[in-house]
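Notes to self after the Tuesday call (sharing in case useful).
The group wants a holo model before anyone commits to mutagenesis around the pocket. I volunteered. Ligand is FE2/S2 (inorganic) cluster. Logging inputs and output together so the record is complete.
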Amino acid sequence: MTKERQKEVAKTTDTEFAEFDELVASIDETIQKEERAIYSERALEEAYHPKNVGELKSPDGAARITGPCGDTMQIQLHVEGDILTDVKFVTDGCGASTACGSVITELAKGKTVEGASRIVDADVLAVLGGLPEENVHCALLAANTLNAALDEYRNKQKRNELRQ
Ligand code: FES
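Result:
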């Protein structure tokens, strides 16, 4: 290939890359507009920048639940005294379930075991400014998982007491 031809090919490739970048940017913009029409700012913030994602080393309580949609959430707790000092979650679910996991772990952290067990799906939905009908169950999945993790903690405590 001559030098002239190489330059021509490079120019064409640059133009193609620029056009492709423009296309990706416009698709991103469309998706973001659609998401903003469906989800609140807070829900998008929690979905894209969730807090408390991950796993704890030797959790004091833990649960993993698969909801009717087939998505799974796991919540783990650290309890010191009677206070939830750390709460982490992971989910393979949708963006809404990530947002719900983020909110429920934030709500639970710092509460007593009894206080955390009073958290329900409506509390999560209230923080998120609601969710579309098809995602309301994501909040329930988060609330059920937190409650199951608290139950597991309580059961462990009972077993330990019986051993003593
Ligand atoms: Fe199932 Fe969100 S957790 S769709």
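Two things stood out.
The chain is about 60% helix and 15% strand.
Residues 3-38 form the longest helix (36 residues).
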